[in-house]
């Protein structure tokens, strides 16, 4: 147990979210565990997701996939941001599926497969309109490749605006995906796994399911887009993470005291302030204003600038909080605490960034969600 900060992760809530999403979509679920499982801890989350009905794992980086293998995970793993120059030999020997989005990448994988003496398992990523990863200008050339030495397991693409269900770009991307699947089939390649949907599409767009969905944020119980899709609660998801920190110090200060670097804030009246033992080195956004912590049954907003290791909250003159008490930085909101959504809004950002940036100094603790 840490003495100043911890991220409590409720794996039973994860199970609830995954099994529900799995039941609703009725296709294979790839659990997206990139970026240390969105900050919640790669290995424990991956294991729990697989126990809860996910059959695949998805990561961005090769090293994330290798870490999973080294920890005994033998489920299929897709790594989709494996750039040219990566250690493809290691990927192939670890039986890791590789997303491919360039001819250069394909070439290197093929050379590596020859060296290792094993077919490489690949998923062809196609750009259907997001204009980020995936084949676009090299697509016609790709269709002239000889895939004999590859095991083409999948074809996939990614939505740019799935969190805005009515958007016509979603329909265009869907149609473009179907078209590209057909073009690949026309050269005799028909990958068993076709996947396009992220969390938002898994929740809102059943036409996009094909044979598998890739679920990230929703599995962690967070909404892909609070403004367009509603909160976790509206979506029936249970946030699995609760970030807690200790009050390093509680003190009474007079009105008109300047607080923190740059004296960017001033106490309005005599009040009690709490110094929270967590700062931007731990992922608390420095620009956050309008969020805070929850302690002794009420919210205490941030006052002044967030520092590297600490920030100050205004507890209010009547607060019973004391030096050494734990506070909730964010949680599922059910007790009145701030949520990752609130912190996202307070930082001109989104819940995704709030959870993924929780720093390595904060221990992840797995237990059920009770406080
Ligand atoms: C991160 C990512 C996902 C998961 O997105 P969510 O919105 O968190 O569900 C799915 N697919 C790809 C390619 C990704 O990079």
Automatic annotation (TrEMBL):
Its cofactor is pyridoxal 5'-phosphate. Residues 240-367 form the Alanine racemase C-terminal domain. Keywords: Isomerase, Pyridoxal phosphate. The keyword 4Fe-4S does not apply. CDD domains: PLPDE_III_AR. One of its GO terms (cellular component) is cytosol. SMART domains: Ala_racemase_C. InterPro entries: Ala_racemase (IPR000821), Ala_racemase/Decarboxylase_C (IPR009006), Ala_racemase_C (IPR011079), Ala_racemase_N (IPR001608), Ala_racemase_pyridoxalP-BS (IPR020622), PLP-binding_barrel (IPR029066). The lineage of its organism: unclassified sequences, metagenomes, ecological metagenomes. This is Unannotated protein. Pfam families: Ala_racemase_C, Ala_racemase_N. GO terms for biological process: D-alanine biosynthetic process; peptidoglycan biosynthetic process. GO terms for molecular function: alanine racemase activity; pyridoxal phosphate binding.
